[in-house]
Predict the structure.
Amino acid sequence: MQDITKGVRAFTIGTAISRVLGLVRESVFAYLFGAGMTTDAFNAAFRIPNLFRDLFAETALSAAFIPALTSAKQKGKEQQNLLASNVFNVLVIVVGTIVVLGIIFSPYIVKIIAFGFGTVPNKLNLTATLTAVIFPFLLFIAFAAWAMGYLNTEQEFFIPSLAPAFFNILSIATPIILYMYLVKHGVDPIFGMAIGVTIGGLMQFLIQIPRLYKKGFRYRFYINFKDPSFKKIITLFIPVAMGLAASRINVTVDIFLVSLLAERSMTWLNYAFRIMHLPLGLFGIAVGTVALPTISKYVTQKKHAEAKAILFDSLKLVFFLTISSAAIIAFLSYPITRLIYERGKFTPYDTYATTQALILYIIGIPFVAGIRNVAAVFYAYRDAKTPMYASFVAVAVNIVLNLLLMRIIGFRAFPLSTTISSFVNLAILFYYLPRKVGRFKFLPLVKYFVLLAIAACTAGLFAMLINDFLVSTIGLTFFEQILNLLISGSIGLAIFYSLCLILGLDEAKDFLKRLVKR
């Protein structure tokens, strides 16, 4: 059985750089703009083209593209490049058309999706203009995801995972450089962020081109909708896209509902969501991304026992990584949020509100990561309908919970509903999993999960107590906060690892050895 930890390590290192820079970007954003009308407008505008991102730039494209490209690779490099070129050219046509229409109709889209913004003067107009500026980002990020899919089939994970770092660098530099220029010319400086993310999306694609050519890709001007391999992609893409369409409808409903709540609610949720995506990207997405081409290869070769073994190895690995990181971040959520955001226009009250959302989001990380890994098996077996149906149910649960809870607990309803619906989604996938990989013992995996959670929560509690002690003895300057978190977080991880060994979780020792070996 192929060991996926080498690919996970490469992906995690690249993603770590990207995610840290992403948090720097959010910190700069918080410093320059704080939380208010303009930040709500930008976050809503950024989310609108992102409604299509999972379809053409990440999940659906990867789920359909990688298994088909893996099969084409078995027939030779020419077939692989023809299929890749075919998909790229179709993306230019389809996504390019969506971008043009999105720019033209952005005022009407915003009026529907962010209806509640209409109660604040000029908020809808600002959101619509920002949306038009940001929409080309969708095309560039689709190209970047296509490049990542090609490189992943070549077992190249570091450069694709590092590429978002260049997106973040441009997103950081552009608003800083343009801030005073825009102010002097009477333009809201929030447009610097919009320009930055658009240019950053382009750079995320361009940085992967040299590696593509080194791996043997040669572009062909080739469009063939009747190509058998392309038909396989469409066959898999459509149900995945339908499932994601349901989740995108859910995001649209969320934007609509949050726009009805108190000002700054959308901004608090966005800040919390960005922190949550650090461990999710480092570990959850990393393991799922590396596992998909490996499982697809074994399924293509009809090595079903190996595919099943990779699945459960990846699940145990992703739970080990995400449960530990999620618990420690949850217990240290307030000092983490304070360190990243609380300066400039971002107030202590904003820190408090963002922390509440972060805790509720972070609890769901193991479930979201598990979905990505289990769904990879269904995609490898060319079954996208089951994940689609699971997504439909989860979205329905999420919307109902939001409607029931938002008037009771306000913006907190949205991260809580996301966590609960993610658990429901994963449970449905596990229920149907034996139809793909055969019967397996489920209770040992549940026991493993529970023991990890006990060890992680205990470690997180100690980390929080240690951080509180360090704050009272060392201080709260910026570098003192970093030192406090590094010490308390490191001790927390050491306690977690020790407790895993005490509880008989021998996998901890195996995973650590595999992750650090060269």
